[in-house]
Amino acid sequence: MSVEQSPLLRVAVAAVPMVDTVGELRALLEQLPDEMPLSLDDHHRALPGEENQVHTIHPRLVAAVSGLATEAETTRPGLMLTQVYVPFPAEDEEQAAVATRDDLPAYGELPRAAYHLERGELRSGLKDVAEVLEELAHLVGEVAADFTEHDEDGSQLRVEAKRITHAAERVGRLAATVEEVGE
């Protein structure tokens, strides 16, 4: 799976913030590469005192690492399915509010970065910041620059994208070495 596929995977997963049926899960999985690693966060989050609950699944992209702490260490996008219990029957708005409670990490790299950083979880937060910067570099250097491909603006956008990419790499390295405050 190439790095270029990562934004496409984000779009596919972002289009399905909550999966309520096996059919919806199957439709999502059909959009993703066959070799994509899957994991299940089976830490069920149930509301205390709620008797009538159904679970829903939140798909989200995560970094799947293989060969950890070796020369062959690689990171590639993986899919994590997080189970959340919501009250049923309930209005759609109420179910959505419960499914996105504060005890769950925020959806998307930027809000999730804020979620972790505000709690002093620097490693996780900075990793998400690095991901956001990589995505911005892609948008600036490839998507926006394509519209001005043959003039000075396109060239300047590509230079700025490289600067953003270098910042993402520096933040990513810092994430691996920074001391956690929230521990």
What is the overall pLDDT average? 75
Oligomer: single chain
How is the main sheet built? 3 strands, mixed
Tally of strands: 3
What integer value in Å does the Rg equal?
A: 19 Å
Can you list the strand order of the major beta sheet? 1-3-2
| Distance linking N and C termini | 34 Å
Name the helicity range: 40-55%
**Regions with little confidence, pLDDT below 50 for 5+ residues:** none
Q: Number of helical runs?
A: 6
Query: Strand percentage, roughly?
Result: 15-25%
Q: Report the principal-axis shape.
A: globular
Structural commentary:
The protein has helices at 5-14, 22-31, 92-99, 109-118, 122-147, 152-177; strands at 38-45, 53-66, 74-87. With 183 residues, it is an alpha+beta fold. It has a three-stranded mixed β-sheet with strand order 1-3-2. The model has no long low-confidence stretch (mean pLDDT 75).
Lay out the secondary structure.
Layout: H1 5-14, H2 22-31, E1 38-45, E2 53-66, E3 74-87, H3 92-99, H4 109-118, H5 122-147, H6 152-177
Parallel strand pairs: 1-3
Antiparallel strand pairs: 2-3
Helix pairs in contact: 4-5, 5-6
Question: Could you list some keywords that capture this structure?
Answer:
183 residues, alpha+beta, single chain
